[in-house]
Write the structure tokens for this entry.
Amino acid sequence: MDRRKFIRSTGAATVATAALAAPAIAQSMPELKWRMTSSFPKALDTIYGGGETVARYIREATDGKFQIQVFAAGEIVPGLEAANAVGSGSVEMCHTCSYYYWGKDPTFALGTAVPFGLNSRQQNAWMYYGGAIDLMNEFYATHNLVGFPAGNTGAQMGGWFRNEIKSVADLQGLKFRMGGFGGKVFSKLGVVPQQIAGGEIYQALEKGTIDAAEWVGPYDDEKLGFYKVAPNYYYPGWWEGGAYLHTMINKAKWEELPPVYQSLVKTACQAVTADVQAKYDYVNPQALKRLAAAGTKFHPFPADVMEASFKAANETYADITASNAAFKKIYDSMVAYRADAFLWEQFTDYTFDAFMMGQQRKKAL
Amino acid sequence: MDRRKFIRSTGAATVATAALAAPAIAQSMPELKWRMTSSFPKALDTIYGGGETVARYIREATDGKFQIQVFAAGEIVPGLEAANAVGSGSVEMCHTCSYYYWGKDPTFALGTAVPFGLNSRQQNAWMYYGGAIDLMNEFYATHNLVGFPAGNTGAQMGGWFRNEIKSVADLQGLKFRMGGFGGKVFSKLGVVPQQIAGGEIYQALEKGTIDAAEWVGPYDDEKLGFYKVAPNYYYPGWWEGGAYLHTMINKAKWEELPPVYQSLVKTACQAVTADVQAKYDYVNPQALKRLAAAGTKFHPFPADVMEASFKAANETYADITASNAAFKKIYDSMVAYRADAFLWEQFTDYTFDAFMMGQQRKKAL
């Protein structure tokens, strides 16, 4: 029996009801304690920290009424199970990457980054103004999820290789630890993608069980020590031109949230989208210089690798869009914006940055 | 007499005090009605809209308890007086650009953008992780202001010129409508900066009273119609590689805000930093194509103009830092990050974007 029914049935006086009723503010801002399961270990303060910042912004703005406790990967469920646990309702929310779940449906990949997709700023434009948040949520709903971008890494590096890659021929049979959907594309060029958890990559690289491994970028990669055993560091990570992190919430739980909290969650996630990118852009340059001092050899991927990868990506998209309507709808939206976005970038942003990079090379900055 | 003193002096019973006291939530989240004076007209939905979005995020997350009413430029005070009105306490807050006030002290310019400074992502890195928000607020405090970034335009265009600019020689005596600090630098090359309000630029350009005018970028500039009378559209706007908008708050009013609202204001502003940039990045490509269809001639500034401007900027910085300690402290912080940031950008972000821009030029996207 609920309290209101109890009061009615016992005939309690109106004045008593008024005295007992919570003030209006408590109805719109109830006390809640939720759990957030992160896909990341605490050691990765950039991306794990993104989830903690979402929780902190929400806690502070509600005077502690909406509490979200963040758990590292493995504390509740393994990192790559985070969204599954949220969809099933065993945890209210998670901080993850949607593309970890591309094996269930490749449409999940579009929420994070796809090969030769958008860069970080373009991702924001497409999500917040191109309708992509709504498009993704039409799809997430079929998995009992609601999701919002909450952090971006920027363009990731292409990974650490024991030996140099001089052309596509060097990719034949190459055992490369890489995440999800990008591996599907790279396998068309002869790469053999390997799925290995973060903590085991170093040993596999050292022993030569694998030939190469990609992770994120200088700051995160430095912590895992890859430069000691695979000194050739390639770029760009064409499969992640601007990779999003996400806050995902169980759909029924989301719908129970009062509008005040729904709005705050969205605002906090958008703020964290800026915050995580800002942190990466501040800490990566310093890590880059430390890696260089430690003997890392930096290489761009050879032009034929880039061109062949682009072709392989387009073949992959043609295959998937032919059979997956949800993927096609969102992919087409991204592609329609992408061409215009990379046209516009050639004007003022590119020429400003190119001039400044030129001054940096001349040591004039 | 305040209420507590009244209760003490009348000897009201403890129980009465308890009954009258507001519940804890109301103390941490009081009902507030503030005014925000914008530096922008409503017609500029990008930048004026940034202030409205700050207000909306705050209103929604407080269930309407913290209401901020936004006024367009001129409704309370002229656009370029916004921060002055806030500093003096006649309005609680504004949405503006700090560099509008560079005439009072050039240190204000560092909060928005300075010639050959940082791009949009780098600005965020420096502000949120490089300590620049705190550095700027040490300075803003001397003007009774507290300020937070709340929107970014990205690199702006260099403006509309009646005639082509083929070298530095063509800048001699050129009457150029341009904002603040950039004009100080450009004047070293013979440009004669003109201060003209937005609504009067078109007529001045048409009549030839001025030779050129800069505003923001394709989407905003298109509305003002400059392409009809000055068809040469130059880039990049080297004086604004990533120009911030700001929420500024009267310092005493800020200090009266409960911590819940202080945190929410900061979160909302950070979210709007992402939001305004996202909107520009979505609407500018479309406007660019419309302007091209209308006959706009796009030109990069000649190399000698860029190099001479860079040299003039550095001379200007040398002059100012020699005599302005506040400017020097913040400028040095920016410069220390800038060189590393433009080094790092040359790796994965630049090579990813360059490859994609190449595909765009080949019409392969």
